Amino acid sequence: MNAAALPGSVEAILEASAGLSPYRRFSREEWAQLRADTPLTLKQEDIERLQSINDPISVEEVVAIYLPLSRLLALYVAATQGLFKATQRFLLAERETKAPYIIGLAGSVAVGKSTTARILTALLARWPNTPKVDLVTTDGFLLPNAELAANGLMERKGFPESYDTAALLRFLHDVKAGHKRVTAPLYSHLVYDRVPGEERVVESPDILIVEGLNVLQPARLPRDGTAIPFVSDFFDFSIYLDGHEDDLHRWYVTRFMKLRQTAFRDPRSYFRKYAEIPETEALDIADRLWTTINLPNLRENILPTRQRASLILTKGASHRIESVALRRL
Which of 95, 117, 153, 214 is the most buried (most CB within 10 A)? Predict the structure, then answer.
């Protein structure tokens, strides 16, 4: 050990941990073999319906990546259900409501979280022990635009401070406590805001997938030891969808330009103005939005949470997942 590295110092910890990892890493081919005999229950048209704009996904991708993952999660859920029953017996609480299994899904803007979440939801709902799978995005917990504007946060939308974290924690607490009916605010990407008076209802799911940019971010630790829950404290399993910065930038700009030809043309769209400007100007705006908002959020808040995930799926330049890292138990 370097004589200058004192025991317990950052340098000593880094030196001692060199070559160590809490993850077991798999190539695409190694991971695909773990599918075993899991059947493919989605058709080509199902997959096309579930994918997002500029997030291509093939049947081969579902077979190689998502079928093994659905098999792993089905095993984890079954084990957790068994543990729940054992705990009930210990507590003499045979009538206690079963807690849903909650999966968190994090990653950058434009990495493809929505497609991954929808594919997993569809696959997991076809396992016999988890027939009811719900999906909620944290977009609904963004503060309303009027409140963001009043506090000078519109340019920070998507950053941790732009969310009603207390409401999100209450929602997760109620779901995990087994409440039969829990509601979340509804968000519209068309109008880029919450929909007043509209709610997303979650009713006793076997599995709940929670998808969002910052769902793995820890809260600031209190100095007096007061309990402050993290959103991820309610997760039984978590996934980080990863990609290289350059690819994320390119995917974001490409998606923005495609939206100019589709959703942005809707008269109700918040981004209608971007459909009417010259293409070169739109490209400049997309680059600026990435560079000034999405890239800083990625570097400051999203990427640092990657190592907190149970599973890391890393994409290559074509959106194809090239490697998988599974946290050791």
Answer: 117
